[in-house]
Design goal:
It holds the Pfam family Wzt_C. It comes from Desulfocapsa sulfexigens (strain DSM 10523 / SB164P1). This is ABC-type polysaccharide/polyol phosphate transport system, ATPase component. This protein has about 425 residues and is α+β, with helices and mostly antiparallel strands. The protein has 2 domains: about 5-240, Rossmann fold (3-Layer(aba) Sandwich), CATH 3.40.50.300; about 250-400, abc- transporter (atp binding component) like domain (Coagulation Factor XIII, Chain A, domain 1, Distorted Sandwich), CATH 2.70.50. It has helices spanning about 25-30, 65-75, 105-115, 120-135, 150-165, 180-195, 210-215, 230-240; strands at about 5-20, 40-50, 55-60, 80-85, 90-95, 170-175, 200-205, 215-220, 225-230, 270, 285-290, 300, 305-315, 320-330, 335-340, 350, 355-365, 370-380, 385-390, 395-400. Strands 12, 14, 15, 16, 18, 19 and 20 form a 7-stranded mixed β-sheet that branches. A 6-stranded mixed β-sheet has the order 5-6-7-3-8-9, with helices on both faces. Helix 3 crosses helix 5. The relative contact order is 0.10.
Amino acid sequence: MNREISIDAHELTKTYYLYDRPIDRVKETFHPWRKIYHRPFDAVKGLSFTIHKGESFGIIGRNGSGKSTLLQMICGILQPTSGYVTVNGRVAALLELGAGFNPEFSGRENVYLNGAILGFSTAEIDDLYDEIVGFADIGDFVDQPVKTYSSGMYVRLAFAVQACVEPEILVVDEALSVGDVFFQQKCLGRMRQLRENGTTLLFVSHDMGIVRELCESSVYLHKGRLAYCGPSHKAVQKYYNMDHRQVSGSSGSENGGAPVASSLTGNEIWKQDISQSQDGADAEILSVSMEDKDGFPSMKATIGEQISFTLYYRVNKSGPIHASVSIKNRFDNLISCNGTYINNLEPQTLAEGAVGKIVFKVQCDMEAGPYTLHFSLSSPGDRPNRAATVDETPWLGPLSIEWDYENHKAPFLGMFNLPVFCSFGEDTK
């Protein structure tokens, strides 16, 4: 990889002053003894990282973590309170819906307007115009005022302009979430092509599957601070585990004695942090690993394939144990909760100190998209469907279920596959 630096951020901080009432701004300005009425709020604080030319770089974090503020400083829209960011190359940014568009202008006029903003001459845009309009695929609406566009049409045209001019640095901030799945696929294909051609890609998204697939490295922001910077799959894991138990490479016992690594595969999607083990719990989950249909570690599967999860747990107090796995979709809907109890298995009872193993085989009969997973141990209750939770993991993932809807017949339509049996016949009456 070319190690030329595209973006270099050093101790980047953006501080805002918050006031309880609007009048407090005036009081602070004219107070004879300069009384302070504000309280400082650091939207981002002390961020340092380097992005090299041709690198695809993700920025992830929960809402309010400072992602958009960081992008605006990189693009020069906001000035940092302290620190600095150096950008080497022409930047094309898709920061928010409609940014850079004049709503009274037609789509055609806005193409030329955006091209001029990016430093292209009219003749250069003339050469690119057919490619831009073809990529946007909005038909005759290109000659209509953009104020009449839907959000999807807005983002189609905006992305087409930014992507077809082949910028040196392309910045995309969650804008693609308003497009349909086919246009998203088209955009992702274009971004991969730009990356292969040497464009530096800076990508913000809440879709962790896309971040893992598209970005080599990522930063994870937590409350405006840099929580992690490194390979994207590790950044995503940090994202899902923050505020829960942290991922840990340790495999020793809680007493620092013999390791339990003989029971661990090294392919874990989650592993217990020994320092946060549950005091007094009857049993503790040690790790969870996933394998695809061919037995390889993976967090991807195609609709209809069977995947397997292996959960290891340690018994602290001998007693009956059930286990379950829960799955949620991207809309936070519980798709399934199933396990040993639902499958009519007798609870497992092991001796104190033993390490138990539970295998879940899941048929992926749900629609394509990202899913999160949750595993738990429980002791049987006195009544049906009642149990006491003994230990549980945080929500893990993302598990990416995939299907090429554009080129292959869908095995079903809807959120999940409900078996339906059909037959043809003829009424001879």
